[in-house]
Amino acid sequence: QELLFDTLLVASMDETASAYGLLAESVDVAEDRLSATFRLRAEARFHDGTPVEAADVKHTYETLVGPYAAPGYATLLQDVAGVDVLDKRTLRFRFKQPNRELPLTVGSLPVFSRAWGRQADGKAKRFDEIVTDTPIGSGPYRIGPVVFGRDITYVRNPDYWARDLNVSKGAYNFDKI
Known about the structure:
The two termini are 13 Å apart. Strand 1 and strand 2 (19-21) form a beta hairpin. This protein has helices at residues 54-64, 71-76, 102-107; strands at 9-11, 19-21, 24-29, 35-40, 80-87, 90-95, 141-147, 151-156. The protein has 3 helices and 8 strands. The chain is of the alpha+beta class. A 4-stranded antiparallel β-sheet has the order 3-4-6-5. The chain has a two-stranded antiparallel sheet with strand order 1-2.
């Protein structure tokens, strides 16, 4: 999923309990550790050209803790009380108890477009019903040729919005995976 969907933060491979902003340009953890506020980068875009917004992050959280996602997400996020959209680019995750790992945990979630899985009438399909719908990602790769149930090809997105960010330098060098 990291090929298709960007996350708020990217973990450091050589620093314990550290992460750097990808979709998020900043993160502020409350002094009492009961919330973390993320500010999204203005240039962050989904593959369809639409901006990544705070409402997309909230939608992702609600999808992942819902009944149609893998139950491991609900377990992973059990100490998250909710997500508040403060404006188009700012959101706050509220936590049930202080835990210094929770900002990193929520920062590592894939972010889905709210438009992914919408029907012609605008209504959203259940998450378990969008299996064959092409994802609207924001990551460095897009879905290429697919033989459903057998194989999938990921094709590098030459217009990847984050290709010049420091956290992306030197990565995503293959045209196809």
